[in-house]
Write a structure and sequence with these properties.
This protein is α+β, with helices and mostly antiparallel strands. 29% of the residues lie in helices and 25% in strands. The protein has helices at 26-41, 128-141, 152-172; strands at residues 46-48, 58-61, 73-83, 87-92, 102-107, 109-115, 121-127. The two termini are 28 Å apart. The model has no long low-confidence stretch (mean pLDDT 97). Bound molecules: nickel (II) ion. Residues 94-96, 136, 140 line the site of nickel (II) ion (NI).
Length: 173
């Protein structure tokens, strides 16, 4: 397992659409294991493949609390097939947009179809934090970031800040 570099705003790859996984094989499982190691190292509770620069429809999630045993889950080709009308609100952040947090409303419950790391299909209903994390991560596969739900003014301020930081880092190399 290797810890990969996390792609940060304003890298344009974050706005790209990820491609479906065609085969669940050892190469894909190795990629998932790298993503899990990268997520724990960050630390974060979810990571999409695009966040390490790989445009494939693959996510890893682990919402276990610090004192609980780790339980990483792999979602391949995840798709939201139903969402509740009822909304819930969580303060969201993103490993690609460090130190930015804001309250986002999303459907409180979702039903998600996906393949697990053995390629076995599932259809599962999620609520609470897991529903929010899965929606946030599936958005990544479609080039959508949580800041896209904020006002244009707020989003513009965040993007400008990260663009400036990236420019300064390039100049300091
Ligand atoms: Ni994110």
């Amino acid at each position: 397992m290797a810890i990969r570099k996390i792609v940060k705003l304003p890298d344009p790859i974050l706005k790209k659409i990820s491609q479906p996984v065609e085969r669940v094989d050892d190469e894909l499982r190795d990629l998932a294991d790298d993503m899990i190691a990268t997520m724990y190292d960050a630390p974060g509770i979810g990571l999409a493949a695009v966040q390490i620069g790989v445009l494939r429809r693959l996510l890893v999630v682990d919402i276990a609390k610090e004192e609980e045993p780790r339980s990483p889950q792999v979602f391949i080709n995840p798709e939201i097939i139903w969402s509740s009308e009822e909304l819930s609100e969580y303060e969201e952040g993103c490993l690609s947009i460090p130190e930015v947090f804001d309250n986002i409303q999303r459907p409180a419950e979702v039903r998600v179809s996906y393949l697990d790391r053995d390629g076995k299909p599932h259809e599962t209903r999620y609520d609470g934090l897991m529903a929010t994390v899965l929606q946030h991560e599936i958005d990544h596969l479609n080039g959508i970031l949580f800041i896209d739900y904020l006002s244009r003014l707020k989003r513009g301020t965040i993007v400008r800040k990260f663009t400036k930081q990236a420019r300064q880092q390039r100049e300091n190399v």
